[in-house]
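Folding Problem: From Residues to Backbone Shape
Fields: amino acid sequence; protein backbone structure tokens
RECORD BEGINS BELOW THIS LINE
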Amino acid sequence: MRALLGLRCVAVLLPAIAGPLFAQDRVLVPGNPPLTEAAVGTAAQLYEWALDVRLNEPQYHEFERLLVDRWKQPGGAARAEIVATGARWGDVARMRVTERGAIQPRVQDSLLARLRAGARGDDADRWLLARYAEGHRVLAGGSPPLTQALADRMADYWEWVLDVRFSDRERWELQQLEVSMWGQRDAAWKQNWVTFIPGWWTTMTSLGPVERTVLRVQARTNVLAEIRQTPGDPFDRWRLARYEAAHRPGGDMNPVLVAGAVPLTQDMVTQYCAFVEWRRRLQLTGLGAQQRQQLQQLVVADWKSGDAAARQALLADLGWWLQVFPGLTDAQRQDVIYKNEHTGAYLERLHQSPDANARGWYLSLEALTLETFRYRAVMQNMYIQTWRSMIESNRATMTQIARNLAPSGRYEYDARTGAYDRYTPYVP
């Protein structure tokens, strides 16, 4: 629970907008405008948030099919509605978590009324109402109750934190544990989950890959420390077993890349990539798949060669990233960047390596870093220019208003009356 509260605070404070520099968007229906995969994804997120439901993969594909059919309807009204949905979700995503939570009940009531009004003649409306009924099926009573949608989202959360993939059987086991706990916990504990889970998944949809990684490193470190303190608790024992099955050396998601007294595993390379992305401030893009693969090949080659210095450099960087970094405050993390600390001992070895491939990889990292900085500078300049234009426009407007309100003359002293009651117009 301490880890949950800590992550909740971080999620509330994180900026709402982050994304890749370049993105490919598959066209589902050509036209002007076309219906794209991104537009469907945006609409799905809005409906999931507004109705407080979760679409699984088959349901998402069915939702995509329904929107394609609606897009093809003559008249253009359906297209305009789908396009407007994207704009509405953009507005919601830019809100703070607390603001989203405050307006969601009103949005849900309005949307349900519209869906019920159109359900008789619209397949998509009927389908969404069916998903709402499924998602709000009560699994465990209480105030608030545990619904199917909340239980599914909680499973998603534990998958994300522990970096695992639950089977259908494991999801069912987790749901039974959640139902059991729901009956034992107090109302404040339940309400905390009801509030946190929507804030968590909506925040994740608007963050870039590096921000999500940083959140997960921090959350997983805290969660693992917490559950290892109470190994006798059924829920903690279950979560720890799932994590270790996936991430022990040779586990389902952590194959051994090079055996030895200190084996090199996939998790070690993955975490080192995450460290590089954060340290080089690649929040907009992260490392590409090719760069990750090339780095893995370089690390594997060093490990196989028995280069003790290279191993120690990599392990030192990983030790700082996994053990020290999660405990740093935001201000301390900024200090690391500004003071140019912990730049990566292993990265410097690649930079100075006699191997041309290692040096080439390092130079490609430098190029990506510089391109990211350039893009940020351009965006920051656009932001400054926009605000400057708004300020200048506002100043001109206020100046004109002041001129319009200003008198067209002045009152002067009249000796005959002994008062300032003689009006003299200004000369144009």
